[in-house]
Amino acid sequence: MSGSQSVSALQAEGITKSYDGRVIIRDVSIHLEPGELVCLLGVSGAGKTTLFHTLSGLERPEEGRVLLQGEDITGRPGKISYMLQRDLLLPHKKILDNVALPLVIRGEKPRAAREKARGYFAQFGLEGTQDQYPAQLSGGMRQRAALLRTFLGSRGVVLLDEPFSALDALTKREIHRWYMGMMDQLQLTTLFITHDIDEAILLSDRIYILSGQPGQITAERTIQPPRPRGLEFALSGEFLDYKKNILSLLER
């Protein structure tokens, strides 16, 4: 953090979480600064989803705490938006009602929630889909709708669990570019899980490596070229050096 008065957008301090007597993650500390996109990278079983459940308040840790913009939100669900790998749009609801759902859950009247959500449809590239149903949308459009729903439920910080993994390569590239732009426009801060090392290097400001059993933060890497990063960077020797280093950290 820069300056004595600055507050991290999201901070986890010494998080330890167990299930049925087995420690899943131990003494995990991470931070996200406002506007950052940070990736959590690790092999299956290292505890990435457990950490997300803890950060979002769905689970309470045995040790440690979670701070959202300086406020202790440990074990308090509904304070931070969490988007799972699948879009989980409700098939029987129109896209506008799907997107407005977090506002209704928060206590806003349905009509007011719809109007507030409607105001973001053009910005999210969803204009014209308000009265459609999820089955009528492409995978990329469904993901945009899910991300808008996540944004409306957020306080500027979102957790994304493999948000782009179900998309084909071309759609994924398009959504990557679009999400980078939306982050800047909306001043969002993002923590996301991925198993795709290339994706992590292309998108992230920083990467945390979570590994071991129980899972612990074993390394942190800053990606130097400023975002957005295009095909030229993806084909560069610098990109390959990052990838070799991260692969070696994951294989330890």
UniProtKB/TrEMBL annotation:
Segments forming domain ABC transporter: 10-239
Organism superkingdom: Bacteria
Alphabetical UniProt keywords: ATP-binding, Nucleotide-binding, Transport
One Pfam family matching this protein: ABC_tran
Record GO terms (molecular function): ATP binding; ATP hydrolysis activity
Protein name (record): ABC transporter ATP-binding protein
Organism, as annotated: Candidatus Intestinimonas pullistercoris
